[in-house]
Structures are given as structure tokens and as C-alpha cells.
Amino acid sequence: MTGYEAQAERTFAAVPPAHGKGFAGTWWGLAWLKALEDAALDAAQVKTGRRLARAGAVGAVSVRPGRITAVVHDPDRTAHRADVLLSELSGDQWDRFVAMAGERAGHVAALLDREMPTHLVEDAAAAGIELLPGLGDLEPECDCGAWDHCGHTAALCYQVARLLDQDPFVLLLLRGRGERGLLEELRERGARPARESLGPAGVAAAGAFAAAVDLPPLPPLPEVPGGPGGALSLDTVAPPAPGVDPAALECLASATAAEAYRLLVEALRPGHGQQSCEGELTIAQDAVRLAAGDPARDVAERLARGSGRDRDGLSRAVAAWHHGGVAALAVFDEEWRVEGEALARARAALENAWDEGERPSLQARGNRWTVVGAPSQLRLGRDGRWWPYRKERGRWVPAGGAAQHPATALACPELTVTDEAS
After folding, report:
1. What percent of the chain has pLDDT over 90?
2. Is 84 exposed, middle or buried (CB count within 10 Å of its CB: 0-12, 13-18, 19+)?
3. CA 335 to CA 364: how far, in whole Å?
């Protein structure tokens, strides 16, 4: 979640629903929520607000000195403007805060790292400056007519806790100073933070669209390089430190370069923005992905253990990976019962795939159809595609990529050669 600062206001775009996720992970974000939950007279309204925020009912959030604002939608899509007020620090308090922060460069460095350490808040409190809200400091205003915190203002507070988690400057803006202005004051007073964001204020993509800011055209896409970077070599005279495996590091570096190259090629393809994001790999799947890079023998043995397979099983899993990545690996590993509509579609596809008298005799077991009298097999993926397999030394081995029709899969070259040889 990023925002843009225009004078003394920042706007943060709405975020999608966050089912099952906490609203705050930092201690200052939790302190913000405690100020809400301790002060609200009706706990049921707090629960309602939590549900609304988790369901993505809070629109774009505007943060400015003394006030946060957003439109919050009820489950029936009725929109309400919700505001939460927090007193600004006085000019004298800000002067003392800047003087205090300037004396300890660590305070400024922590803020620039988007952190609010406890010692910063404690030092501020010692100087008579309360940064975080306390009991009763968050004052609600909502057009639904509630005089205390309602579900709409509570939902807004939960959403702001997410913002505070990632950027404590949101709290400082609410207290009366924006990031740019505050850092300029620190510089004028002689503070030397490790890095200052005093350049031209950037504009986040979501904020730009929300604010209708005119942006220059995007630069042309870069050219795709000829391939990933060269292999890393850690073959040095000095022995490795205890616990460091150079071969494993070389394998990881090469695999990372290859994956980065693949992602770049995918990202530059037309229509990439309309494709769904890939899910995160499991440890077992990632072990197969790394093994597909042909690592050294000892590394391959470690990857086999990590994938829960023996060396032969890993070799066949790698063959599946080469034919179709995660989808092919799932078909290799899973044997599932085809029922209902999926079974009807599979039977129809098998009946219509060959002309009369040409259909091979198939023996079904779950999602696997084995050709009777031949070392060939078809496996049905959960997405309805068919994958060819051949039998080698009593084991089924992936023989090719997926096909929409079973006859096409069974006609793959590796199966044809195997059948003729047999």
C-alpha cells in the first residue's frame, strides 16, 4: 500500500479483501487498534468494523493533519462517509520532536526504514509529545448518525492500522507533519539521516489513477536478453566456512538467474497483465524445480530428500516438470477418482477421439487410462487436459506435454517410438 503526498494530504487506494489476515503486525499498529478497541462503547460495532475491513468494504483512505477519511460500504452496498479525528501536535511540540529526533540519528534512520522503534516513542513522551493515540483520542464522525464509533469508523481504523504497519509517517502526517516537510526540518536543524527522501515526491500508480494525475507515457519495454546470466563459480583456494556448501550455493544462484530470466520473458509477452498470478511453490515442488537445473550429484541427493522422493522418483518428477511445470508435476503425483461431470466429459472425449475401429483398448484406474497390450498411458489433469506416459523398467515416465484431446496426447512422438520398439 503506497500513497501520494500533495501538500499535506496522502491518499491510499482501496485494498482487496484480506480474509484470515491480521490488520496489524507491528507494535505501533497494534497500539493504534488498542486505542480504538478500548474506547469504543459498543464492542459489537468494533466487530462489525473488523468484518467490513476484512471484506474490502473500505474505499480509498485520505490522510491529512488531524483527520482520516474514507467511504465505507455496508454489505448491501450502501455508502457512508466515515471520518476519524486525532489532535494535531502544536508547533511547540513539533519543535521539541524535531530537536529530540535530530539528536539521535537512529530515530530518523528508523523512520526512513518505515519503522517506529519503542525508544523513539519513549523519548518523544519524555519530551511531552504523545505520538500514538491513547484512550479516547480517536474521535469518530460518520454520516450514518452514530455518536460513538460505528462499524464504518471502526472499519476505517482497522484499515489505517494496515497503513501504519507499512509506513509510520502516516501517523506523523495525521499528527500534523508530512514526510517531506518533516525531513526538511530535520535537515535544516543539522540532522544527517543515512538517506533522505527529499527528491521530487513520487506518485504511486493507484494514487495516480485515483487522483487523475497526468503522467508522462511509459518508456519502451526493454529488449529480452539472449539468456540468463552465466553460472556462478565459487571454486576458490580458501576453504568454505563451516556449514557453507559451495555446490548448493552455485545451484541456487544458477536457478535464480534462470527463474528471473523466465519471469522477465513472461512479463514482456503481450497479454501478460491479463494472466493470473502463479501460486507459491511448496517445498517439495521447489526441490523438483531446482533439480531440473541439473545440479551436482550431492546437491541432487539433497533435493531428492527435500522432495520426499528417491533419486529415481526425482528424475521422473523432473521429467514431468520439463513437460509442464507445476501442472505436469501434479498429474505425475496425483491419482484421483474421476466422477460426475468430469467423468462424463472424459468418456465423451475418449469416445470421439478416434474413428470407428481405431480406438485403442483402454483400462481405466482413477484418472489414468492404460493402453492394453502397450507401454502407454493417458493421465487426465484436473483442468481436463490429457498427458501421455510411457512405461520404462516397470515405472511410468512422463512422455510429453498436455493435449486437449486424448488421441493427440497418445500420438506424441515418444510414445510412438516406444510402442514401435516394443
Report:
1. 30
2. buried
3. 12
Is residue 84 within 8 A of residue 68, CB to CB? The reply is yes
- Own/partner contacts of 32-36, CB < 8 Å, gap of 24 or more, are 32/132, 32/133, 32/157, 32/160, 32/161, 32/164, 32/171, 33/157, 33/158, 33/161, 35/132, 35/133, 35/134, 35/135, 35/137, 35/138, 36/138, 36/149, 36/154, 36/157, 36/158
The whole-angstrom separation of Cα 46 and Cα 38 is 10
**DSSP character at residue 66:** T
Task: Check whether 4 has a pLDDT greater than 60.
Answer: no
- CA-to-CA distance for 291 and 288, rounded, in angstroms? 5
The answer to whether 350 and 362 are in contact (CB under 8 A) is yes
For β-strands 61-64 and 376-380, DSSP reports them as unpaired
* Cell numbers representing residue 304 in the block: 531428492
Beta strands in 37-154 (DSSP E): 61-64, 67-73, 79-85, 139-142
pLDDT over 90 (residue 66): yes
C-alpha grid cell, residue 78: 450502501
Q: Rounded distance, CA 107 to CA 123, Å?
A: 10
Give the model confidence (pLDDT) of 76-92 as tens digits.
999 999 999 999 999 89
Torsion angle (degrees, nearest 10) of CA 333, 335, 341, 345? 80
- Measured CA to CA, the distance from residue 103 to residue 30 in angstroms comes to 27
For all residues of the chain together, what is the average pLDDT?
A: 82
Q: What are phi and psi of 171, to 5 degrees?
A: -65, -40
